[in-house]
Amino acid sequence: MAVKNRFAELHDEITAWRRDMHENPELLFETHRTSALVAERLQAFGCDEVVTGIGRTGVVGLIKGNKTSSGKVIGLRADMDALPIHEQTGVDYASKTPGAMHACGHDGHTAMLLGAAKYLTETRNFDGTVAVIFQPAEEGGGGGREMCEDGMMARFGIQEVYGMHNWPGYPVGSFAIRPGAFFAATDQFDITLEGCGGHAAKPHETIDTTVMASHVVLALQTIASRNADPVEQVVVSVTSFETSSTAFNVIPQKVRLLGTVRTLNKEMRDLAEERLKAICTAQCASFGGTADVTYMRGYPVMVNSDEQTTFAADVATAVSGSCQEAPLIMGGEDFAYMLEERPGAYILVGNGDTAMVHHPEYNFNDDAIPAGASWWAEVAERRMPL
Q1: Residue 199, CA distances (Å) to 99, 192, 242 in order
Q2: How crowded is residue 143: how many other Cβ atoms within 10 Å of its Cβ?
C-alpha cells in the first residue's frame, strides 16, 4: 500500500495544525485567521506562488514539479470553514468561539492538504504543476462558486480538480467514491401563507392558516410519492413551521414555512420547483387563502467525471488496499461548481466510528491524516508522472 512514510513522520505536526484550526473555527467567508495561516505555511514550505483573496478569502498555492514539460496542472481542493454549532465534544482543544465549531471536518481537510503540499514541495516528484486550493464558505456560502467566478481555473491553468471529504461510519483511512451524480442539488423555499385571523372560538369567521398550512405540508410530500418517477430521487423537507401568533385563543393571520428540496438531476429539480409552487397556490386557494412562495436554487448536483473517478479510485486502492462504491448522498457539496468548470472527482475517506458530520459531538479523526494526505500526494504524482 502507498501510505507514504513521510506522513507518518509529519503526523504530529499535521495534527497540531488541525487542532489549532479546530480551536479557532471561522464561518463562511470570515476565514481570515485560517486563510492567513494557510498562506504563511504554503510560503514557508516553498510554494512557487501563493495567491490570497480568491473568492474573497480563498488561497491558492502553486507547486511546480521537477519537470513541467507535460504542461499539466492539477487542482487539489480543501474547504476551510466551520459551522454555527455549539461544540459538545469535551476535547481539550474544543472550539474557543461560542456558537461555532468544526462539525464537518474541514479543519481535517485543510490540515491534510497542507501536509500534502509540504510533501510535494519537498519532493516535486511529478511533471507538471499542482494547484492546492483552500476554499472558504462551503457551508452554504458558495465559496467554490466565488472562486470559480474570480477566474481561478483559467488564471492558474487548472485542467482537472480533485476533492475529498471525511465520512463517519467508514473504517479510518478507507475510501469510497462513485462516478456521475454523487451529491444532490440543494434548493431552499420560504413560503408565507395568509388567510384571515380571528378568535379561536369563531373559526367559521376566519380562514385558518394553521389548518391550511398543515395541508400544504402534507401535500408537498406527494411530489416524491406521486409526481416523481419512483426510480428518481427527490427529498422535500419542511423544516420550520411558524405562525404569526403564539396565543392559545388566536387563529393566526399568517404562517411561514421553510425547507429544502434535494434532487439529483435537472429534470427532477425543475419538476420539484414547479410542483411545489403549484401545490402551495392551489391548496391555499381551496381554503380561500394565498401563498407567497420564494424558491431559491442552491448548490447544483455534484457530478464526478467517469475517467477521473476511475483514476481516483485506483489511487485510493493503492493507498488503502481497496476503494468501495459510495452510495448516492442527498446532502449538498459546493465542489459541484468546480466540477462544472473542469473534469475531476470527489472522494470520501473513512473517519471511523464517530458522530456524523454536522453533529455537536462530531470530531475529525486524526488517524485518517496519513491516508488522506497520501491520496492527495499520489493523485499528483500518478496523474503527472516523471
Answers
A1: 40, 21, 18
A2: 27
Cell numbers standing for residue 209: 392558516
Ranges of residues in the chain with a pLDDT under 50 are: none
Handedness of CA 20, 23, 29, 32 (dihedral sign): negative
Backbone angles phi, psi at 364, to 5 degrees: -65, 140
**Contact yes or no for 166/364 (Cβ under 8 A):** yes
In sequence order, which residues have a C-beta less than 8 Å from that of residue 259 and are 6 or more positions away? 188, 189, 220, 236, 237, 238, 239, 240
C-alpha cell at 347: 472522494
Backbone dihedral region of 173: left (phi > 0), alpha (psi from -120 to 50 degrees) or beta?
Answer: left
SS3 content of the chain, % helix, strand, coil (to 5): 40, 25, 35
Count the alpha carbons within 13 Å of 58 in the hemisphere toward its beta carbon. Answer: 28
Predicted pLDDT of residue 4: 79
Instruction: Give the pLDDT confidence score for residue 151 in this predicted structure.
Output: 98
What grid cell was written down for 185?
442539488
Residue 56 CA to its chain's centroid (Å): 18
Q: What are the cell numbers at 78?
A: 480543501
User: Is the sign of the CA dihedral 299, 300, 301, 304 positive or negative?
Assistant: negative
**Distance separating alpha carbons of residues 42 and 130, to the nearest angstrom:** 12
What pTM did the predictor assign?
0.95
pLDDT of residue 2: 64
How many other β-carbons are positioned within 10 Å of the β-carbon of residue 317? 15
Distance between alpha carbon 41 and the CA centroid of its chain, in Å? 24
pLDDT tens for 151-205 read 999 999 999 999 999 999 999 999 999 999 999 999 999 999 999 999 999 999 9
